[in-house]
Amino acid sequence: MSFTTGHVGLNVSDLDRSVGFYRKIFGFDLAAESADEAHRYAFLTQDGTLVLTLWQQSEGTFAPGLPGLHHLSFQVPDIDAVRGAEAVVRETGATIHHGGIVPHREGGSSGGLFFEDPDGIRLEIYAPSGADDRPAPRSDVPTCGFF
């Protein structure tokens, strides 16, 4: 038996804000959204495939110090796509870690942008190569592991 990752579901505190954020940065389509104010959710797709579900059932911000999701990562074809995404992320005013695009490790070519959504959920947009024009933030651990 083999498994592949299906969609990812995230708890959010403000569905409208989160839908706007994820659609702006990732270009997802809004496939479905609840009309029930007591049970708000949205399904976001890309090329007709469900990628992300958002569930408005949280308060406060994401607590990275507790067990659970570490970060959510999205791969793009090349570093130019990461740079394009970085410009959009900066427009949103999102928290960006490491000052911008960095490699996954010292001497590595893969890397990307590490940032947070409006609820503090840690995100990554990366490319398999082309991020080696800057040093890694730390030489002793993977960049995506500690931000």
TrEMBL record:
Lineage, top-rank taxon, reads Bacteria
Q: Entry's Pfam families?
A: Glyoxalase (PF00903)
Per UniProt, residues of the VOC domain are 4-128
Q: Which InterPro entries does UniProt cross-reference here? A: Fosfomycin_Res_Enzymes, Glyas_Bleomycin-R_OHBP_Dase, Glyas_Fos-R_dOase_dom, Glyoxalase_1_CS, VOC_core
Arranged from A to Z, the UniProt key words for this protein are:
Dioxygenase, Metal-binding, Oxidoreductase
Q: Which GO terms describe its molecular function?
A: dioxygenase activity; lactoylglutathione lyase activity; metal ion binding
Task: From the UniProt entry, list the residue stretches annotated as the region Disordered.
Answer: 127-147
**Which protein is depicted?**
Glyoxalase/Bleomycin resistance protein/Dioxygenase superfamily protein
Q: From which source organism is this entry? A: Microbispora rosea
